[in-house]
Amino acid sequence: MMSEEIEQLNQDLADKRPKDIIRHALEQHGAIAVSFSGAEDVVLIDMAVKIKPDVDIFTLDTGRLHPETYEFIEQVRKHYGIRIDIRTPEQQALQQLVREKGLFSFFEDGHQECCGIRKIEPLRQKLLTLDAWITGQRRDQSPGTRSDVQLVEADSAFQGRNGELTKYNPLALWSSAQVWEYIRLFDVPYNRLHEQGYISIGCQPCTRPTLPNQHEREGRWWWENAGHKECGLHAGNIIEKG
Ligand code: SF4
């Protein structure tokens, strides 16, 4: 889509509910999938399967998730009776990294290389089969990188099967409180780590609970620069900000 079309679409969808945005996205694109991170973005699945029961849903199994997250992914699969396309890292690249740098290289030279192999490359491969994807990004998740997230964006970081890739963020304007209101109202399953003080959930070694008044992304890669808490899945958030 041209940037003018994206701009117009954002205006048209501005007062629509997330489920209406998901319906619009599913109607517009033949090859479209919902990205599930194993956290509170499960609400996207709840909305999407009610519209299209066989909607394409994928998640990235980095091999380093919490046991609770694996259990949660399985719980979601059974609860909705859905297939989840679980994407895993390419073995050769992963073995080379671990052989050369061990299992915790990210604490020494940053998370980019490990995230690149365990998340970004499997995501890139999945997106190459699509025209559009739906994510759970919200503006209130990070004042540093997500405050400008739009309902619809031309994905500048990845390519789709025909080059262009559209990214829908139906929850962009929702607050964390709205997400949790929905989870309670519709009895949506949730990751038990949320009961232990975790808000933003990623890989086990790189995620920790947040304290009162800490922002949720402060629980991710806490040993690194506070303003760049993205693993690359949404790299455009950083690139576009320069
Ligand atoms: S979040 Fe941590 S363990 Fe997970 S892929 Fe990134 S650096 Fe590796």
Overall body shape: globular
> What is the mean predicted local confidence, pLDDT?
92
Q: How many separate structural domains?
A: 1
Strand element count: 6
- CATH topology assignment: Rossmann fold
CATH superfamily heading: HUPs
The CATH architecture comes to 3-Layer(aba) Sandwich
**What portion of residues belong to β-strands?**
5-15%
Residue windows where pLDDT falls under 50 for at least 5 positions: none
Which hetero compounds are present in the coordinates?
Answer: iron/sulfur cluster
The class by helix and strand makeup works out as alpha/beta
Describe this structure in words.
By secondary structure, this protein is α/β, with parallel strands linked by helices. The protein has one domain (3-239): HUPs (Rossmann fold, 3-Layer(aba) Sandwich), CATH 3.40.50. 38% of the residues lie in helices and 9% in strands. A 6-stranded mixed beta sheet has the order 3-2-1-4-6-5, with helices on both faces. The longest helix has 16 residues, at 112-127. Iron/sulfur cluster (SF4) binds at residues 62, 64, 106, 111, 114-115, 118-119, 202-203, 205-206, 231.
Keywords, separated by commas or semicolons:
single chain, 242 residues, alpha/beta, Rossmann fold, six-stranded mixed β-sheet, 6 strands, 38% helix, globular, binds iron/sulfur cluster
